[in-house]
Design goal:
This protein is α+β, with helices and mostly antiparallel strands. The chain is built from 31 helices and 25 strands.
Length: about 900
């Protein structure tokens, strides 16, 4: 905050009018565009001091700061000590090249992640130049008039100007988890932060009610900013998967170093030259170190996040990507997720009859006589429309009559404004005649909302809410010629109207009113029922296909909605969530805590597909129930009360369009389009990412095992070494890196959504995978040793030529081995490996490097490679293809066994 501003205490100890005067702003008009620009230049963007951007130099130095590089460096130094300058330089080259690959890929991943996180920045509703609009939170300036309601994250320090049942969670600043009530009344200037009831602070959350406030501090001048400037926090981005890979690498290093020492000792005991065996041991240790594991994991996860982002799924945490792949239950909301979230008023049910409002823009018609209604002459219709407009926090766009511009606010409230505008009733004109004096914000417990309006000498109360709640609170019903008492039979009749509308897929609200003498009165006593409003939200056409995909993937989809059972059943049938028969819909109160459920109740809840009238606590119970059964649970949510459920679920999924900022902050994933198919796509990408990393590890370790076995068996048999230390280093650089990277970023198995979810705690490599690694390692080893023996014994080649044969056989066998990484259920010529363009690019690059090693004299002399004749090349090609063929036979047997 600049020096010409008042001291902070003046904001909470000064009446609201004085704060507005000090900041030079009119609450009804807000700041002008020119004033906003001037204040932004003066105060800067509304941002906290972010974690330092990782510099390129830091990313580069990090490539050398790990155990793997330390082992390579030790090997290089030892080679220099043994006066083997070529090998020492070669190992150093391996360090440099691997560091370069890691630097380039990690730099791209880090920059991509930084850009991705910027996509999820919050927006705030402000009044500027007499118009309500949403602006990025970073653009707020002191003096901005901010509108907020339950579920919003406070994005700047605010002085409260208007409040209706306003509460905020300030635990991020005060540590007090209990919501704090807020009002417009000034407090003493010595009041501590936790008791400043007229202030809202950046980083806290509005948990209940609604109101307005004026921005008094932004960015580092805010209370949260002051804390941030004193304490710099660094959040680790290493995921559980990356940590598991690192632990795997450490274990492999220990095993391979031990084996390398053992092989070297056996060779020395067999009479081989000490220096040669030390070099061989060093080369084996270097060759079997999986230095590419962390790099490929980072690339695969970051690439998967970008794939999801392009399809409207923003993942806030890298760890969520891997968890998505294990998701077994998706608990989804109805509105906007299974439906289009395109609310329009389709029907008004008044005591005088029904009015139909066609969705195609045609003129409204009375259902009884097909005549257009007249809101001017029909007092009951006009009063119902006025209540829908007054009891409302939304704002329409410029094209109010048609609703062509979506406006700002809840889609259901926007639909009410658009319907009233079609019949000639406009919110701004109505509020000018009947200004609002109090708002009773929507309460999940009462399921109603109310506003008080001054109309001449009396107060008018406008109420809307769930039909069951509003009808129960009504004592009378309004007819065109007066009011009648609302008897129990009348309530049953109106509830029947509600059920009939809901069975047609309509979202139903009830409208009511009353007169009041004072704003302190209970708004929900003695209400007069005006009618029902039916809003339509068409089921999404693409949901059925996604639900079928979930069924084939072994994923259970459960609709968890706060709507009525009949509406939930209609939508479930429309999207294909359940069969054609009778669909059981369980009430939310059936979802009691797990420990209170009998076995038969638990089984019934686990098998249920639809839950209606579910409150936030019941969502927690459902999540706990499915998690107790061993499932990984994804839960969607949009409101502030959904935040606990989003936190408790293994994957919390918030709605980006209609979701509150509190929900978005609590979730691991945000849907920009609020669409269920996006969730399924994200789950598929999570599976693909984990599958790709597993393939990469399988490929890398089976190649490394073959190198180890080739040297170990030859040494144990006192035979010549089939492959030399520098050749191992060269292969380690060529066949380990590029094909492995290609596997890590592949498009994935097209049949991956036909498998059941993997267990959440399943290791990267199971017992079966270790057997596969050993089997493929033996295949490649047998092929290389067979080629070496054929060159020596059959072709009678000298040792140098035979070593060239075994080297090329091992190199090509490892390259062809990449095709053994396909899924057993796929075809040999049609699978995700063949479809992966990166694999073909990696193979061409590796073949070019091998050709250079053979035909460029300097490189061939360095690697001790000699020219071969046609017969020798025949052995190389035939033996290198053998592991591929044996691997395909193994895959066919596995497919037959599982099929």
């Amino acid at each position: 905050m600049t020096t010409d501003q008042p001291r902070p205490a003046d904001f909470w100890s000064t009446p609201a009018e004085g704060v507005l005067e000090t900041l030079g702003v009119d609450a009804e008009a807000g700041l002008s565009p020119r004033a906003v620009l001037e204040r932004r230049r003066q105060h800067g963007p509304n941002r906290l001091r972010e974690a330092k951007r990782r510099s390129s130099w830091r990313i580069l130095t990090n490539q050398f700061a790990n155990l793997i590089v330390g082992l390579l460096l030790a090997a290089s130094i030892l080679s220099y000590v043994l006066v083997d300058w070529i090998e020492g330089t070669a190992i150093a080259a391996v360090i440099v090249i691997n560091a370069a690959l890691g630097f380039v890929t990690e730099l791209k991943a880090v920059r991509s992640m930084e850009a991705l996180y910027r996509l999820g920045q919050f927006t705030t509703r402000v009044r500027r130049d007499r118009q309500v609009r949403e602006v990025p939170a970073a653009e707020l300036v002191p003096g901005d008039i901010v509108l907020f309601e339950g579920g919003d994250v406070v994005t700047a320090d605010l002085r409260v100007l208007a409040a209706s049942r306003l509460q905020a969670n300030e635990s991020s600043l005060t540590g007090e988890s209990t919501p704090v009530a807020k009002s417009i009344d000034a407090v003493d200037d010595a009041t501590p932060l936790a008791e400043r009831s007229c202030m809202l602070y950046k980083g806290t959350a509005v948990t209940r009610g609604s109101g307005e406030g004026v921005v008094v501090a932004t960015g580092l001048a805010s209370e949260l900013g002051k804390i941030t400037s004193l304490v710099e926090e660094t959040e680790s981005t290493r995921t559980p998967l990356e940590r598991r890979l690192e632990r795997l690498a450490r274990r492999l290093i220990g095993v391979t170093v031990g084996l390398a020492v053992l092989v070297g000792s056996i060779g020395v005991a067999a009479g081989r030259d000490l220096v040669v065996m030390v070099e061989t041991a060093i080369a084996l240790a270097v060759a079997t170190v999986p230095e590419g594991l962390p790099v490929v994991a980072t690339i695969a996860l970051a690439r998967g996040m970008w794939r999801m982002a392009r399809h409207n799924a923003l993942v806030n945490r890298l760890s969520a990507v891997e968890t998505l792949g294990a998701t077994g239950v998706i608990c989804t909301d109805k509105t906007g997720t299974l439906t289009e979230n395109r609310m329009t008023v389709a029907r008004l049910r008044l005591p005088s009859g029904e009015i139909v409002l066609p969705d195609d823009g045609a003129s409204p018609r009375r259902k009884e006589d097909d005549q257009p209604p007249d809101a001017t002459s029909d007092s009951a219709l006009r009063e119902a429309l006025e209540v829908g407009v007054l009891c409302n926090n939304a704002e329409l766009g410029a094209a109010r009559e048609t609703g062509a511009e979506p406006g700002v606010g809840d889609p259901m409230e926007i639909a009410l404004l658009a319907a009233a505008a079609r019949l000639g009733i406009r919110r701004d004109e109505l509020l000018a005649q009947q200004p609002e004096e109090r708002e009773e914000a929507f309460d999940p417990e009462t399921r109603m909302m109310a506003t008080f309006h001054r109309r001449e000498k009396e107060l008018r109360v406008a109420v809307k809410g769930a039909p069951e709640a509003v009808i129960a609170a009504c004592a009378q019903v309004r007819h065109a010629d007066g009011e009648d008492a609302l008897a129990d039979d009348d309530r049953s009749t109106w509830l029947g109207y509600n059920d009939a509308m809901a069975e047609e897929g309509l979202r139903v609200l009830a409208l009511a009113t009353r007169e009041a003498a004072d704003t302190a009165e209970d708004p929900y006593s003695g209400l007069v029922l005006l009618g029902l409003v039916g809003l339509v939200d068409p089921p999404r056409a693409d949901v059925g296909e996604s639900l079928a995909l979930c069924r084939s993937a072994g994923i259970r989809v459960v609709m968890v909605t706060g709507d009525q059972a009949v509406t939930a059943r209609y939508v479930a049938r429309a999207v294909g969530l359940a069969g054609d028969g009778e669909i059981e819909v369980l009430p939310g109160d059936a979802a009691r805590p797990v420990e209170q459920l009998a076995d038969d109740e638990r089984a019934r809840l686990l098998n249920a597909r639809i839950f209606a009238r579910v409150d936030p606590a019941q969502k927690l119970n459902l999540i706990a129930l499915h998690q107790a059964s061993g499932a990984v649970v994804a839960m969607t949510g949009d409101g502030v009360n959904d935040a606990p459920a989003l936190k408790k679920a293994d994957i919390g999924i918030a709605m980006g369009q209609r979701g509150t900022q509190v929900a978005r902050e609590a979730a691991e994933m945000v849907l920009k389009d609020d669409a269920f198919p996006t969730i399924v796509l994200a789950v598929e990408q999570g599976r693909i990412i984990f599958d790709n990393i597993r393939k990469f590890v399988l490929y890398l370790l089976s190649c490394n095992v073959s190198e180890l076995l080739v040297v170990a068996l030859a040494t144990s048999a006192s035979a010549p070494l089939p492959i030399l230390p520098l050749q191992i280093l060269f292969l380690n650089l060529v066949t380990d890196v590029f094909p492995a990277l290609a596997l890590g970023v592949g498009p994935g198995d097209p049949h991956i959504m036909k498998r059941n979810p993997r267990p959440a705690q399943e290791a990267i490599l199971t017992r079966g995978h270790w057997i596969t690694i050993a089997t493929h390692g033996v295949f490649i080893t047998a092929a290389v040793l067979g080629a070496f023996a054929a060159a020596l014994l059959y072709l009678r080649l000298d040792v140098e030529s035979a070593v060239t044969v075994s080297f090329l056989t091992l190199a090509l066998a490892q390259l062809w081995h990449v095709f053994n990484m396909r899924d057993p259920q796929s075809r040999f010529a049609r699978n995700d490996i063949v479809r992966n363009p990166y694999v073909w690019g990696a193979l061409l690059l590796c073949l070019a490097l091998l050709a250079a090693a053979v035909f460029i004299p300097t490189l061939s002399r360095l690697l001790a490679i000699v020219p071969l004749d046609g017969r020798a090349w025949g052995i190389v090609v035939a033996c290198s293809l053998a592991p591929l063929l044996l691997g395909q036979v193994l895959l066919a047997l596995r497919a037959r066994r599982s099929g």
